[in-house]
Amino acid sequence: MASVTIKNVTKAFGDNVVLRDFSETFQEGEFVTLLGPSGCGKTTMLRIIAGFEKPTSGEVYINALQVSGGKTFVPPEKRNIGMVFQSYAVWPHMNVYDNVAYPLNIKKIPRAEIRTHVERVLEIVHLSQYAQRLPSQLSGGQQQRVALARALVAEPELLLLDEPLSNLDAKLRESMRFEIKEIQQSLGITVVYVTHDQTEAMAMSDRIILINQGCIQQVGTPADIYNRPANQFVADFLGKVDFAKGVADSAFITLTGTDQRIPYKGDRRGRVDVAVRPERITLSLTEGDLKGTLESQYYLGDVNDCRVRVGQALFRVIAPPETHDRMKNGDTVFLTFREKMVFDDDGSLDEQLTIKT
Fold it and tell me: Do the strands 81-84 and 158-162 form a parallel or antiparallel pair, or are they unpaired?
């Protein structure tokens, strides 16, 4: 296992600054995800950790060893890391066994020792029975496991994963999330994972580092970031959320363009933005804090996915499935926010309020 310490790393390509003063420490055995939209700098940070890019300024340490920064630079092959890319990058002319054994062959490890390592890692990724197959005879998920096994076979202290599941279909992505997490936990290895997929980040991470335009927006556990986002960008990027403008006083927030209001016990006064997640709204045909119009509903089996108009705001509501047969588009319905987030004009979070219903 390895720890990673990043101190004030900035990276620029010409005039384009893609990372700004990035500082963070990843603990031994931790699964950390760098999450953010395309072009935010997350893959660049991963490549700096790997040694494929040099920081413009700042330092990177793996354990206590400085690997980048100033006049110091340790090449990738000396950092004891494994890396899995978005493309599987498996050798098409080699069978599974030879693909996985390749890093050990390069190091001229004795043949018997190579066999022991390869057989062990193939068992870990559930590919022992496919050892003699070519990549063309495997599914996408199996090819990705070959790439993972190849990264693990040399027993690296640190595993770096760059959007490894983005080329898989939805069902395979879901199963591979849990397989990668189980492998990480069983080996106790430190993982730094890059993705723009919030579901992957939520399902797999011990901590998430959410990045936008090269800057860290928030660091925390999935629950921390989901339930207490630091700003509106974080709230909007991680999970589903709707925003409505309003005016706050000492007891209520009145929604803009309506005379309707919701209870409020925070400190903000004046113009605010209210954010609410669809699963935290109660929909009723008879009573609630807000009265709205059902614009659409989508029966998904386990839930009824609704859109309700309240003045200028449109709220998504995840309602029980049985409500689908009780309502039709255009009906008047009532909403109560069980939880909400209130943001000031600067986008910072004021508080989260739980309303008992």
Answer: parallel
Q: Answer for the pair 226, 236: CB distance below 8 angstroms, yes or no.
A: no
Sequence-distant (≥ 6) Cβ neighbours of residue 54 within 8 angstroms: 48, 68, 73
Cβ within 8 Å of residue 196, ≥6 positions away: 35, 36, 37, 38, 42, 163
Query: Taking the CA atoms of the chain, what radius of gyration do you get in angstroms?
Result: 25
By DSSP bridging, strand 4-13 and strand 16-26 are: antiparallel
295-335 pLDDT, tens digit each? 999 999 999 999 999 998 999 999 999 999 999 999 999 99
For tokens 């970031």, the residue is 225
Query: How wide is the angle at C-alpha 175 spanned by C-alphas 156 and 88, nearest 5°?
Result: 50
Place of tokens 């062990």: 120
CA distance 157 to 64: 13
Q: Which domains does the chain have, with CATH numbers?
A: 4-233 (3.40.50.300), 242-354 (2.40.50.140)
Question: What are 89-142's pLDDT values in tens digits?
Answer: 788 999 999 999 998 998 889 999 999 999 999 998 889 999 999 999 998 888
pLDDT tens digit sequence for 129-176: 999 999 999 988 888 889 989 989 988 889 999 998 887 788 878 888
pTM above 0.85, yes or no: yes
Which band of pLDDT confidence, cut at 50, 70 and 90, is reported for residue 354?
Answer: very low
Taking residues 3-12, report their average pLDDT.
97
Helix or strand (DSSP H, E) at 159: strand 158-162
Side-chain half-sphere exposure of 92, counting CA atoms within 13 A: 2
Contacting residues for 220 by C-beta, under 8 A, at least 6 apart: 207, 208, 228
Instruction: Determine what percent of the chain falls in helix, strand and coil, rounding each to the nearest 5.
Output: 30, 40, 35
Q: What is the DSSP letter of 207?
A: E
DSSP string of 261-330, one letter each residue = EEE--SS--EEEEEEE-GGGEEEESS--SEEEEEEEEEE-SS-EEEEEEETTEEEEEEE-GGGGGT--TT
* b/e burial code for range 320-351 (CB count within 10 A of at least 16 → b): eeebbeebeeeeebbbbbeebbbbbeeeebbe
